Amino acid sequence: MQLRYGFRLYPDTGQRTALAKAFGCARVVFNDAVRAREDARKAGAAFPTAGELSKRLITAAKQTPSRAWLGEVSSVVLQQSLRDAEAANKNFFASLKGERKGAKTGAPRFKSRKDKRQSIRFTANARWSVTDSGRLNLPKVGAVKVKWSRTLPAQPSSVTVIKDAAGRYFASFVIETDPAADATRMPDTGQTVGIDLGLTLPQTPSGGTPIAVLSDGTKIDSPRFLRRAEKKLKKAQRELSRKQKGSKNREKARLKVARAHATVTDARREFHHQLSTKLIRENQAIGVEDLAVKGLARTRLAKSVHDAGWAQFVHMLEYKAVRYGRTLVKIDRFTPTSQVCSACGFKDGPKPLHIRTWTCAACGVVHDRDHNAAKNVKTAAGLAVAACGAQVRPGLVLAQRDEAGSHGFSPEPRAA
Q1: Identified catalytic residue from 32, 84, 196, 402
Q2: Can you give the pLDDT at residue 415?
Q3: Stretch 65-76: mean pLDDT, rounded?
Q4: Mean of the pLDDT values across residues 392-396?
Q5: Radius of gyration of the chain (CA)
Q6: More reliable by pLDDT, 25 or 414
Q7: What share of the chain is helix, strand, coil (3-state, %, to 5)?
């Protein structure tokens, strides 16, 4: 499978200027491609092919005074931008026909120069390389300083240079993983576990609020990264609102807000990486509920739901299970895990959220609400059978930008 290994970049002033030109040129070519298809649709003509767009928007455009500056950046960057526009159109039409899974995808929209996140991609034919001194040599940009947190396990097929809203630069390499090496990192175990995710849980002895309870009774505290940073975020946002629009001080204040949010995001992602890797390492099979996160995010618990980051955590479990030969089973979100006695199977009916412990009317066993739910998740997933040799269900796994990286980029724990 393919994964992304990300590392922090530290370009100098000249390299930042060159990257800004590349970001801008890629954005212009993408917008020209979207506009060309829109003009063809309005005129009732056939959509131009990728080859036609390449000749018209890149090769011929470089010869005109209005687009001559396209020649100042690598042509591979411009070609990849055209590929992105083509992929966006294919996804849109596949979504209309019902051939694409997931939420409906809208038509490609124009990119704005005010977007704070920018990216460009270099493929192998761009002749980028890593120098002997450890710098990333990019065409028409130069040798950029990289903070390597680990060695690349294989030769990358491409590299994407990203600038985020906080003004940080990253290099994201696409790597084909070695299944044999992954198998040695995560030997088979006979353990299985069910996970009950939740928010309205009692305080643990350590004083934290558990985000998840395992079927073995373990309660995992939620660091609540957003809640702990709220005071700092409010102050930074208040300072931003008082700055004059378009001023340099407002841009400084915006960067301050973006960096504060980036700190929260990176810390949460690092926590999810460590927790998901620990669970994958220790268990051959894992059961988890298929929660309706989007629906919960529209309730009064929205901030807490986003702070918990359930979707990101479950997604990490999914691709790591595929990578390391584990089994991940999602049970239906309507399974009454909190209503059924895990000891005798008697359904005791729904209970208000403030009821944290209850006694089974049939067998008299006293249950902790969340521990009982985790046990039922494990039973509903049938993990006792899955751990005895069941194969991981095949499926496409998207490349993960967060799989590895330097500090500030939330890498997967090195001990994994």
Answers
A1: 196
A2: 39
A3: 95
A4: 37
A5: 25
A6: 25
A7: 45, 20, 40
Q: What is the pLDDT of residue 247?
A: 95
> How far from 126 is each of 151, 157, 375, CA to CA, in Å?
22, 11, 53
Torsion angle of the four alpha carbons 8, 137, 132, 415, in this order, in degrees rounded to the nearest 10: 30
Residue 289 annotated in active site: yes
For the record, the structure tokens of 244 come out as 């004059």
Cβ contacts of 260 within 8 Å, gap of 6 or more: 229, 232, 233, 236
Active site residue 99: no
Q: List the catalytic residue out of 32, 84, 289, 412.
A: 289
**Would you tell me how many other CB atoms lie within 10 Å of the CB of residue 306?**
15
Cα 185 to Cα 105, 150, 182, 320, 323: the distances in Å are 38, 16, 5, 12, 11
**What is the pTM for the complete model shown?**
0.84
Please answer whether residues 289 and 370 qualify as being in contact, where contact means their C-beta atoms are separated by less than 8 angstroms: no
Catalytic choice (32, 270, 318, 370):
370
Structure confidence at residue 200 (pLDDT): 54
- The dihedral region occupied by 284, where left means phi > 0, alpha psi between -120 and 50, and beta the remainder, is alpha
Centroid of chain to Cα 208: 26
Q: Which two tokens stand for residue 126?
A: 């761009």
Active site residue 164: no
